[in-house]
C-alpha cells in the first residue's frame, strides 16, 4: 500500500527524534563571582498564604544590592496576567487568563471569559495609568505578538491565529482577521498546560512557538508556515538572544533551559553537560510545600529542591541595567517563588549555563502568592516580570482530590487567592529608564537609526516594523549599513540591517559576499546563515565562498558553515564538511552538530515506514504522534529515551525498551493511559507521576497508544496466533492487521472503550504490581 505524500508530510511535521548551537559571543565568557545581596531575611519555615497588597508584596521581594523593583501595574487594572507585548509606541498588551484555576477543581476554566488589556503610561513615569479592554470573551489567550498596528492572538484549544486592530483609536479592537487557519489539527484540550506558547519574532524573521514543529513568517498580512522535521521544543515560553539563538524551557521535564545549541530548523541537539546538576537546584527563601511532585521534591526544610515549573524565560538585552547583565538568561520558577539569572559560557561553540549566584536566586520572595510566569526586556531598557500572583499555580490535572498537592492547597487555603496580578520592572539604582518609543508614528527612514540601538527591544521592533511595512525604499540605506559603508556603532547594527534586507526580499549576493569578509565573526556567521537560499539553489559561487570559511578562526562561524553547507547536495559542499570534520575531530560542537543534522535527515525519511499500513492504522499513528510531541515528550523525551539534562534525574522512565510496551501487552498500556501509573518502575523512582488521561476520548487514547507502540514498542510475535485473545480464524478481519496478516501496533477506539468499561471503578493510578497481577 502506498503512502499519500500528504500523510508523509504531516508525519514529518509531527515526529521529532532527539536532541548544539551558535554561541552568543565569539570568546569564552569568564565565570562571574557571586553578586552581593542586601538584607535577605532569615529563612521562613512557615510562611503565611494570606493575600498581600501590591505595596506590601513589594517589600517581600529580594534582589542583589544595587537593584530594586518597581510596580508597573496590578489588580484591579489587570487580573491573572500571563504574557505581555509592546507595540512600537510602547503600549503594553496583557494576556489575562481570567478563568485559570479559580478553584482547585478548575471550575469554569473552559469558559470564554478571558481578555487582553491595553495599558498605557501616559506621563512616562514607568507606571501604567490607562487601561482598555482591547479584546474580551477569549478562551485563555496563550500567545500575543504585535505587528505594526495589529495584534496577533492565539487562544487555548486551537492553533488558529487571528489579527486584531483598533481603527478608531478608542483602544478597543474593532477589526478581526484570521491570519492562520488549521481546523484539522486536534489539540489536547484535557490539559491546557500542554499547549503551545511563544510566537517570538526572532532575528531571522521567523516566529517560533513551543510544542508544534512549525514556525511562522508574517507575509502580506498572513502567517506563512514552515515545518521543522525534528520538531520544536519547550513548554511555556520561548525567547532569543542578540544573534538569533532560540531558548526553550520545559516544566514537564523539569528542565530550565534547552534547545539553544542550534536553531530547531536544523534539528534537535542538547548536551547532558550544558549545565550541571547544581544548576537544576533552586533556592527559595521560604518553605514551598505546594509541589505536585510530592515529598521527594522537597528538602528536609520543606523547600523545593529542583526546578519543577521553569517558564517565561528571556535573554536580557536592554541597556538600563549594568553591562554585565546583557546577554544573561533569566527564567522563572513560580513554585519556588524565585527567578534565576544565569551566565552563558561559550566553550568552543558549545554553550553552557552557570547560575551567577551561589545557593541563591536573582529574585526571591517571601510572599507565597508571588508567581512569576514571564519575563521580558522592555522598551525602557529594563527587565519586566509578569507575576500571576495567586495561590494555585498548577493546572487541574495535578490538583485532584486526595493528591499530595491538593491536600496542601486545601490546608493552606491557596484556592482563595485568585483574581490578582502584578507586572514589575527591575531597575538599577545607577540608571534612569530609557524614553518611550514612537515608532508607529515615524517614517521608515527614521526607523533605520534604531537598528543599531543599544536596547535589543528597539533593534528588534525597528526591524519588524520596517518588514511589516514592506517599504523597500530604504533598501539602499540598509545596504550601506550592512556592508559598513555607513558607520554604525556596533556589529549588531550590521546584523540587523542584513536581516531587514532579507525580510524585505531586497538582499543580493554582492551584499552577502561583502558581509562574509566582515571583521566581526557574528556578522560573518549571519551572512553564512542568510546565504542558505543560494546554497539550497546550488549556487556554485556562494557554496565556494562559504566552503572557503571552513577554517575560520571563530568556532561559531565554523559551526554555521557546517549547518549551512549541509543544506546542499553539491559535492563541493559535501567535501568541505568532510574536510572540517577531518581538520577538527576533537571539536565536540562540530561533531555533535553533524550528528544532529544526520538525525534530522533520518526524520525526513522516516515517514516511508508507514507505507504498508492500512489507512485507519496510519491515521491513528499520525494523530498519536502529534499528541506525543505536544504532551508526552515533555517528560519522556522526543525520542522516548527519557530526559536527563544537567546531571539531574529523569522525570519519567524511558519508553524505549520498556517491558510495558511488549507487543502482547496492549491492554496494559491502555490501562496506564486511562488511569495513570505510580510507584517505582523497574526498581527506580521518578520525580513525576504518570497522570491519568482518561478524561480524553477513546480515539485520543487509542491514537497515543498506537503511536507509542509503533515508535517505541516491542516487535510482534512471529505468529499472530500467539497474541492473547486473537483467534487465527479472525485475524484477517480485525482492525489492526494488514491483508498480509502482519500484526499492527495500532489499537482501536473500540478496544479502548472495552478497557475503559472494565476499569471504570478504578480511581487511583496503577502500580506495576497491580498490572502484573492482571496480566497473569
Automatic annotation (TrEMBL):
<dbReference type="InterPro" id="IPR036909">
    <property type="entry name" value="Cyt_c-like_dom_sf"/>
</dbReference>
<feature type="domain" description="Cytochrome c">
    <location>
        <begin position="619"/>
        <end position="712"/>
    </location>
</feature>
<dbReference type="InterPro" id="IPR011989">
    <property type="entry name" value="ARM-like"/>
</dbReference>
<keyword id="KW-0408">Iron</keyword>
<dbReference type="InterPro" id="IPR011042">
    <property type="entry name" value="6-blade_b-propeller_TolB-like"/>
</dbReference>
<dbReference type="Pfam" id="PF13442">
    <property type="entry name" value="Cytochrome_CBB3"/>
</dbReference>
<feature type="region of interest" description="Disordered">
    <location>
        <begin position="736"/>
        <end position="776"/>
    </location>
</feature>
<dbReference type="InterPro" id="IPR011041">
    <property type="entry name" value="Quinoprot_gluc/sorb_DH_b-prop"/>
</dbReference>
<dbReference type="InterPro" id="IPR055557">
    <property type="entry name" value="DUF7133"/>
</dbReference>
<feature type="compositionally biased region" description="Basic and acidic residues">
    <location>
        <begin position="750"/>
        <end position="763"/>
    </location>
</feature>
<protein>
    <submittedName>
        <fullName>C-type cytochrome</fullName>
    </submittedName>
</protein>
<keyword id="KW-0349">Heme</keyword>
<keyword id="KW-0479">Metal-binding</keyword>
<dbReference type="Pfam" id="PF23500">
    <property type="entry name" value="DUF7133"/>
</dbReference>
<dbReference type="InterPro" id="IPR009056">
    <property type="entry name" value="Cyt_c-like_dom"/>
</dbReference>
<dbReference type="InterPro" id="IPR016024">
    <property type="entry name" value="ARM-type_fold"/>
</dbReference>
Amino acid at each position: 500500500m502506498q503512502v499519500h505524500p500528504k500523510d508523509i508530510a504531516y508525519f514529518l511535521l509531527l515526529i521529532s527524534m532527539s536532541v548544539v548551537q551558535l554561541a552568543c559571543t565569539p570568546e569564552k565568557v569568564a565565570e562571574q563571582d557571586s553578586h552581593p545581596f542586601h538584607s535577605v531575611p532569615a529563612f521562613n519555615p512557615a510562611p503565611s498564604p494570606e493575600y498581600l497588597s501590591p505595596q506590601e508584596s513589594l517589600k517581600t521581594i529580594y534582589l542583589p544590592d544595587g537593584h530594586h523593583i518597581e510596580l508597573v501595574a496590578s489588580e484591579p487594572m489587570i487580573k491573572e496576567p500571563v504574557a505581555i507585548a509592546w507595540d512600537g509606541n510602547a503600549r503594553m498588551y496583557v494576556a489575562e487568563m481570567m478563568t485559570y484555576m479559580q478553584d482547585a477543581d478548575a471550575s469554569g476554566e473552559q469558559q470564554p471569559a478571558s481578555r487582553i488589556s491595553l495599558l498605557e503610561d501616559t506621563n512616562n513615569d514607568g507606571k501604567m495609568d490607562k487601561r482598555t479592554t482591547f479584546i474580551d470573551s477569549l478562551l485563555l489567550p496563550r500567545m500575543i505578538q504585535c505587528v505594526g498596528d495589529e495584534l496577533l492572538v492565539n487562544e487555548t484549544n486551537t492553533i488558529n491565529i487571528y489579527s486584531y486592530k483598533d481603527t478608531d483609536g478608542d483602544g478597543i479592537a474593532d477589526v478581526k482577521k484570521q491570519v492562520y487557519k488549521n481546523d484539522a489539527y486536534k489539540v489536547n484540550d484535557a490539559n491546557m498546560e500542554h499547549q503551545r506558547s511563544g510566537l517570538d519574532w526572532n532575528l531571522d524573521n521567523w516566529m517560533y512557538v513551543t510544542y508544534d514543529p512549525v514556525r511562522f513568517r508574517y507575509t502580506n498580512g498572513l502567517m506563512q508556515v514552515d515545518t521543522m522535521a525534528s520538531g520544536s521544543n519547550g513548554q511555556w515560553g520561548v525567547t532569543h538572544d542578540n544573534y538569533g539563538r532560540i531558548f526553550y524551557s520545559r516544566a514537564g521535564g523539569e528542565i530550565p533551559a534547552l534547545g539553544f545549541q542550534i536553531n530547531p530548523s536544523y534539528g534537535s541537539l542538547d548536551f547532558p553537560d550544558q549545565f550541571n546538576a547544581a544548576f537544576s537546584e533552586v533556592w527559595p527563601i521560604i518553605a514551598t510545600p505546594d509541589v505536585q511532585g510530592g515529598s521527594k521534591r522537597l528538602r528536609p526544610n520543606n523547600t523545593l529542591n529542583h526546578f519543577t515549573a521553569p517558564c517565561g524565560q528571556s535573554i536580557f538585552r536592554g541597556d538600563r541595567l549594568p553591562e554585565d547583565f546583557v546577554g544573561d538568561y533569566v527564567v522563572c520558577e513560580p513554585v519556588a517563588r524565585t527567578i534565576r539569572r544565569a551566565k552563558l559560557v561559550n566553550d568552543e561553540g558549545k554553550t553552557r549555563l552557570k547560575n551567577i549566584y551561589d545557593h541563591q536566586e536573582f529574585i526571591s520572595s517571601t510572599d507565597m502568592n508571588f508567581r512569576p510566569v514571564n519575563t521580558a526586556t522592555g522598551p525602557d531598557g529594563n527587565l519586566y516580570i509578569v507575576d500571576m500572583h495567586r495561590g494555585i499555580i498548577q493546572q487541574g490535572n495535578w490538583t485532584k482530590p486526595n493528591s499530595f498537592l491538593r491536600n496542601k492547597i486545601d490546608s493552606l487555603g491557596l484556592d482563595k487567592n485568585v483574581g490578582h496580578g502584578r507586572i514589575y520592572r527591575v531597575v538599577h539604582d545607577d540608571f534612569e529608564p530609557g524614553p518611550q518609543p514612537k515608532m508607529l508614528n515615524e517614517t521608515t527612514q527614521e526607523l533605520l537609526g534604531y537598528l543599531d540601538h543599544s536596547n535589543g527591544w528597539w533593534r528588534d521592533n525597528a526591524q519588524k516594523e520596517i518588514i511589516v511595512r514592506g517599504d523597500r525604499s530604504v533598501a539602499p540605506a540598509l545596504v550601506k549599513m550592512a556592508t559598513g559603508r555607513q558607520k554604525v556603532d556596533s556589529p549588531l547594527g550590521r546584523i540587523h540591517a542584513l536581516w531587514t534586507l532579507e525580510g524585505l526580499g531586497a538582499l543580493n549576493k554582492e551584499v552577502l559576499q561583502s558581509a562574509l569578509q566582515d571583521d566581526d565573526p557574528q556578522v560573518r556567521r549571519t551572512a553564512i546563515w542568510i546565504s542558505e537560499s543560494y546554497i539550497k539553489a546550488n549556487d556554485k559561487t556562494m557554496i565556494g565562498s562559504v566552503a572557503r570559511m571552513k577554517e575560520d578562526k571563530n568556532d561559531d562561524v565554523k559551526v554555521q558553515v557546517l549547518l549551512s553547507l549541509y543544506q546542499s547536495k553539491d559535492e563541493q559542499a559535501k567535501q568541505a564538511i568532510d574536510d572540517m570534520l577531518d581538520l577538527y575531530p576533537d571539536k565536540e560542537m562540530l561533531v555533535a552538530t553533524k550528528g544532529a543534522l544526520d538525525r534530522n535527515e533520518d526524520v525526513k525519511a522516516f515517514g516511508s515506514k508507514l507505507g504498508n499500513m492500512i489507512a485507519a492504522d496510519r491515521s491513528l499513528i499520525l494523530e498519536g504522534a502529534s499528541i506525543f510531541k505536544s504532551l508526552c515528550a515533555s517528560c519522556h523525551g522526543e525520542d522516548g529515551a527519557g530526559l536527563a539534562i544537567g546531571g539531574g534525574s529523569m522525570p519519567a522512565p524511558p519508553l524505549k525498551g520498556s517491558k510495558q510496551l511488549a507487543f502482547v501487552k496492549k491492554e496494559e498500556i491502555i490501562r496506564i493511559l486511562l488511569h495513570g501509573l505510580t510507584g517505582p518502575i523497574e526498581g527506580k523512582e521518578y520525580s513525576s507521576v504518570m497522570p491519568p488521561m482518561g478524561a480524553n476520548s477513546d480515539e485520543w487514547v487509542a491514537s497515543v497508544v498506537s503511536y507509542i507502540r509503533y515508535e517505541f514498542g516491542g516487535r510482534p510475535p512471529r505468529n499472530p496466533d500467539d497474541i492473547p485473545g486473537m483467534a487465527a480464524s479472525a485475524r484477517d478481519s480485525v482492525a489492526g492487521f494488514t491483508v498480509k496478516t502482519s500484526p499492527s501496533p495500532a489499537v482501536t477506539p473500540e478496544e479502548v472503550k472495552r478497557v475503559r468499561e472494565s476499569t471504570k471503578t478504578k480511581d487511583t493510578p496503577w502500580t506495576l504490581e497491580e498490572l502484573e497481577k492482571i496480566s497473569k
